Amino acid sequence: MAHLLGGENLSISFGTRTVLDGVTVGLEEGDRIGVVGRNGDGKSTLMRLLAQKATPDAGRVTKRRDVNVGYLDQSDVLDGDLTVGAAIVGDRADHEWAANPKIRDIMGGLVADVDWHAQVRSLSGGQKRRVALAKLLIEPHDVIMLDEPTNHLDVEGVAWLARHLKTRWRPTEGAFLVVTHDRWFLDEVCTDTWEVHDGIVDPFDGGYAAYVLARAERDRMAAVVEGKRQNLMKKELAWLRRGAPARTSKPKFRIEAANALIADVPEPRDSVALSKMATARLGKDVIDLEDVSLAYDEPSAGAAALFDRITLRLAPGERVGVVGVNGAGKSTLLRLLAGEIEPTSGRVRRGKTVVPAVLSQEVRELDEVSDLRVVEVIQREKQTFSVGGKELTAGQLVEQLGFTNQKQWTRVSELSGGERRRLQLLRLLVGEPNVLMLDEPTNDLDTDTLAAVEDVLDGWPGTLVVVSHDRYLLERVTDHQLALLGDGKVRDLPGGVEQYLRLREEALAASDAASSAGAAAGEARTTAGAASGGGASAASAHSEAEKRDARKELARIERQLGKIAAQEEKLHAQMAASVDDYGRLGELNAELQGLLGQKEELELAWLEASEVLE
């Protein structure tokens, strides 16, 4: 595989802390690499160096002269004064990008529901992220670097991006580097993993699951080596005491296959035991929504209800995940369950012993304790806490979620976004709620911290409701999932997130079919009215007929363009394979030129048909 770009002996420090120390890495054609590591260990810094957005203190970054690199920053870099269309395609004419089926697919997958003429500053965080992604992906980059691309994307957006990256290039072409905490996404799109830690980069074959197994084996081997060293020291001491060496046999260790490595690992949680504990703490009744409807406007004004006569019953110890498109009402559902808002109609019943706690997306609840240190915030709530049957002190619990001894004495106001999120979750847990509701808990957390959070939740014996776009987390900590499909109803998902995505695809297909049928019916009514009316009506009917023909023509042309694109790709592959056969190469080139001529004619016809529709 051809080399695209790389870094040699890269070192960079911030203040007195060395983030990367003599790192050498490279990207080859066909590489699909995920970057993992703790927050602050240098994942984004490494990517910025390789994208030449930052300069190392030592070492250099090299790339092939013709390599085109696309980079998606974690922060918002779009000009807020631009319209959505101008931000994505610049000053290109519509026909320049609309004739490209790949660009049309990107537009449909990311920004189909975004107003093309709206200013960027008026968009939500998720919409801005999708606009930035579309702007990057429509360009023909050889290398794409994505820093937290799944932030603010819903489950559908993450699934679409995974499909796009898997099919964007042939397996031996192009390359991408992605930093993300979404472990399902890493497993879905990556064939290699880089772990950034302690100033170095360790490469692993495979996606996130393979990386976890490989790291577990590496840590086990390190423990074996340390155990051997300690045993040797003990033997040396015994020999010194006795004056003669004892007869001992060398311990033998062998590396098992991946399934043997995890064969003796217990289930993440004892569901039966936790259910018994939850029943003891909660009683039989938790929270029931009975025929609940909610609309922000008065129903008499014709506003569509966010929830329409939904019924939902939470049982003691139940662990449920909630998925849905942005704006479907996921966060509102949590507020209903927590009693922060009241329904327009229907009844909400809460058990007498229910103590709810909600982890919001903003984490503003920590502002009131910003002057305190981390361990003081926890000690202020409680001194000891039971996790998985073990009693932990506040300091031990804080350390379990990644706060080292030094970090425990850092003021809350000085914490990063991920650290604040961890602290807020801990603060909720030590308050001993028995119904815990988490709204997008994975935001700003690295993969190691997510694993620690999941470990804490595994031993937590209450009712758990999680709203998240992180499929891995939902399937890991919840036992079943619910969907908000935007129709005011709550749908159970026996098939999990995969079933939700199928339902969304079916709903979108049905919506498109209904729109087409409505348009056809409208045209038929217009034509009938024109037949019985005057000359103006006849002119209108003629215009509608032309539009109907234009739509059919557009559909036909797009099918033809799709076939030509496949033939063009096939010819390019044949030409690459016939590079030494000049006669065959000439024949293939002549065939390709004829194909390009047909393509140009079809594109002109497409523009003429689109002008009729305008």
Folded structure, characterized:
Among the domains are: 1-68 and 141-206, Rossmann fold, CATH 3.40.50; 78-139, no CATH class; 215-247 and 257-265; 531-613. Helix content is 46%, strand content 20%. It is built from 19 helices and 20 strands. The strands form five sheets. Strands 5-6-7-3-8-9 form a six-stranded mixed beta sheet, with helices on both faces. Strands 14-17-18-12-19-20 form a six-stranded mixed beta sheet, sandwiched between helices. The protein has a three-stranded antiparallel beta sheet with strand order 2-1-4, covered by helices on one side. β8 (192-197) and β9 form a beta hairpin. α18 (535-577) runs antiparallel to α19. The two termini are 47 Å apart. The relative contact order is 0.08.
How would the blueprint of this fold be written?
Layout lengths: L2 E12 L2 E12 L3 E5 L6 H8 L7 E6 L5 E4 L11 H6 L4 H5 L2 H10 L14 H13 L5 E5 L7 H13 L7 E5 L3 H7 L2 E6 L2 E6 L2 H35 L15 H4 L9 H12 L4 E8 L12 E8 L4 E6 L5 H9 L6 E6 L5 E4 L14 H8 L2 E4 L2 E4 H7 L16 H14 L4 E5 L7 H12 L4 E5 L3 H7 L2 E5 L5 E4 L2 H37 L2 H43 L4 H32 L1
Parallel strand pairs: 3-7, 3-8, 5-6, 6-7, 12-18, 12-19, 14-17, 17-18
Antiparallel strand pairs: 1-2, 1-4, 8-9, 10-11, 10-13, 15-16, 19-20
Helix pairs in contact: 4-5, 12-14, 17-18, 18-19
Keywords, please?
six-stranded mixed β-sheet, 614 residues, 20 strands, 19 helices, globular, 20% strand, alpha/beta, Rossmann fold, single chain
